[in-house]
Each structure stands twice: as C-alpha cells, then as structure tokens.
Amino acid sequence: MSEENSPGKPVRREDAAGPHAADGGRRAAEPPPVAKGLAFFLVGLVGIHFAATFLWNAPSSPVSESVAAEVNGYMRPFFVQNWSLFAPNPINAEDELLVRAQVRDPQTGDVEVTEWRNPTQLEWSLVHHNPAPSRASRLSSNLHRRLSSAWYDLTDEQQEIVADDYRDMADWRPLAGDLIDSQGGETSSEVANVVRADRVTTGYATQFAKAIWGRDVVAVQFELRRTPVPRWDERMEPEPQHPSHSTREFGWRPVLVDSEQDESAFARTVEGLQE
C-alpha cells in the first residue's frame, strides 16, 4: 500500500476538494460568458450612440457628409420625439393652394384664363366631422408645406425666377438652369428641392384643372396663400369680409400628366367634393 493511500495519514482539504479549491472560490465568482458578451454589446451601443451624436452636432466635414444619411436616419427616426410634444406650436394660419388655368376654346382656338379655384377648401370638406379622414384631404396642404419650405430657402433673385412663366418648357431643366445660373453655376439642394416641389405641384394643378375645366387645358398656374387666424383677444369680433393674407406666386407652367396618374379617378373625386 502506498504512502498516499495509507489509512493512518490524514487527507488534506485542498486535495479532497479538487485541484481548483486553492483559488479560494474566485473562479465561481466570475460572471458567465453570456453576461460578458451582453456587457460588451451594451458598451458598443453606447459608443455608437455617442459617435452618431458627435457627427450630428459636429460641423460639416468629409467624414460627416459620407455618413450623413445613416446619421440622419438614426437621430431622426420615423417616430421621433421632440420638444413640440410638450410645447406644441399650434396652427395659427390657413395655408391654401390656389390654381387657375389657360384653356383653349375647341371651336375658335382662343386661349382664355380661368378664375382662381381653391382645391384646399374642397379637400377640407373631407375633414369636417370625420375623425379619420383619408389622405386625399391633405394633398394640397402637403404640397403647400413642401413648396413653401423650398421657396423660403431661395434667394430674392431665385424667388423672382420661380415667379416667371415657363409655359413652353418640355421639362424642368430650363427652370433649374436659371436657378443654378443665379448662384454662379453651382447646383445645390435648395435648387433641387424647389424644382421637385414645383414639378409635383404642377402635376397636381394639371389634374385639378382638367377635372374642373376639361381636357383643353394648355397651361396651369398656382399660388400659395396664407391667411392668419384671429388673435385670441379678437376671437369674438366679426369676421372680416376680406381677411388679409399673404401670397407667394409662381409663373405659368406647362400641363404635366405622369403615366401613373388616373385622370378619371381624380376627376370623380373632385366632382364628388363639389356636390
């Protein structure tokens, strides 16, 4: 019988507990691998957040511009919360889009200018007493907001350019070219935004004009109107017959019909709103 297994020799505690007992229980206190991985993951998320916040607030640079779309999508998600949730800015004016057209007489060939019509007022009729109106009730209002925002970003000279007539242009390149020339030949996001908004609004105005005055429309014109609502301390006073308002004018544009537009459906909708 060996010395280690002799019955008279006491067995040491660390030998009985196994080879890891000498660590004093330190190995048992270490966090599991899952916890370590989760900690590294959370630290990485915090690092990405701080990096995105830094790029969002930092001055423009080649680095920030290269990831501008990704940073903008992260900092301004679809469901974004901002201070307006707690301090809302109430609507204090009525924003309306007005449309008129040049219509050719099929018998004489003469071109006449129609009166101004207000599609926004027609669309608002879909909202009255309707807690869940359709998107058709916001078409012209959305166009007004988009076009007005783009207009405000222009210089005074460029605002005069968009107020000129471009009735005979086949596309929107002449308008874009004049706007670019006015700023030294360099393109910009401001020019791109107003040209896109002008074209989309022209398409809407064309559909509305055809629904009102028929298929002999040869040109359309639109303007943006803003009418301030009465102040709170003036709410009980009689409503003025001709309230003051501001307008932003745009020149004549050629008719524009996109292939995916449904003129018949649009005309039926407008006809239903007029009833």
From TrEMBL:
Pfam families: DUF5819 (PF19136)
Name this polypeptide is given: Uncharacterized protein
Source superkingdom: Bacteria
Bias (Basic and acidic residues): 11-29, 233-251
Region feature (Disordered): 1-30, 233-254
